[in-house]
Amino acid sequence: MTTLHEYLESAGCETDLCTLIELIAEQAQPIREAFITHQAYAESENVYGERQAAMDTWSDELITRVLGESGLVRALSSEEQDEVRTFPGAKAEYAVVMDPMDGSSLIQTNLAVGTIVGIFGGGDVLQPGRDLKAALYMLYGPMTTLTLTVGKGVCIFAMDHGGVYRLLERDVRIPDGNLYGTGGGRPDWIDQHAAFITAVEADGAKLRYTGSYVADFHQILKYGGIYCYPALKGKPKGKLRLLYEAIPVGFIAAQAGGAITDGHIDLLDLKPAEPHQRTPIYVGSMNMISLVKETFERSRV
Ligand code: AFP
What we know:
Elements: H1 4-10, H2 15-25, H3 28-34, E1 41-45, E2 51-53, H4 54-70, E3 73-78, E4 85-86, E5 94-102, E6 113-120, E7 134-140, E8 144-149, E9 154-159, E10 165-169, E11 179-182, H5 191-202, E12 206-207, H6 213-223, E13 225-229, H7 242-255, E14 259-261, E15 281-284, H8 286-300
Parallel strand pairs: 3-5, 11-12, 11-13
Antiparallel strand pairs: 1-2, 3-4, 5-6, 6-7, 7-8, 8-9, 9-10, 13-15, 14-15
The protein binds 1,6-di-O-phosphono-alpha-D-fructofuranose.
Cofactor: Mg(2+)
InterPro entries: FBPase_C_dom (IPR044015), FBPase_class-1 (IPR000146), FBPase_N (IPR033391), FBPtase (IPR028343), Fructose_bisphosphatase_AS (IPR020548)
Subunit structure: Homotetramer.
């Protein structure tokens, strides 16, 4: 089976980008080994005022250190750090955005969680998602998988017992489907979201929601459907972050024939104004994204 390194070479990836992707991907091993001794919460909070799980900070420090020492990264912005980190001495100009441990509140329940990463060129983290050079997520479930795009379609790899990523699937396409997951409580949903959920439930959609965005999205990538974290009454921007969660996963979705929207625009066209801005998220199959946009459009007239 093709290895990650062989795939990247065959994809004509820039050498430094190949090295950077492999460096990030291989952190899955130490991260996976750290779960058992870092299940609880740290004593700290992130910039959003959310309690940080021990693995939030542990994985953030690991990846930040490794990338800072690599000489390949000019700037790094993490969901778990208030400020953008810069590495002026870097020989390359990649800018990395990341959620180092998405779903971390689930670690002690042994549900799948993951690391989400986007890689820009040009040393600037505040770019529209459409300008990404690569996007990936490692998913720590029954397998350790790496879902990756370098702008030439989406591939899924699984790590073997020797720590080598082996290609499971290339040119992944999101099928039309009827799975849906949604955050927020029904009483807090804005009217447009409530109307969308009512419509998909009437069409027989099945609820699949674990509380881990990256795991829930991966199921959508495979089986089709939609993941939603909507605007809520009193929280018009919802919960998830544009830079660390929407943009990298949205880029993967688009490369697999799906899309990501806030109900109005394609979120890959939105240039972040500041690193920690939130956004409502609808990401998944085109059949579902089209219905979201129609629902929001109808409510405008
Ligand atoms: P944690 O990383 O704090 O577990 O939050 C996970 C998350 O950002 C995303 O992965 C989930 O889909 C969403 O939050 C779950 O939020 P709710 O608990 O409000 O449903």
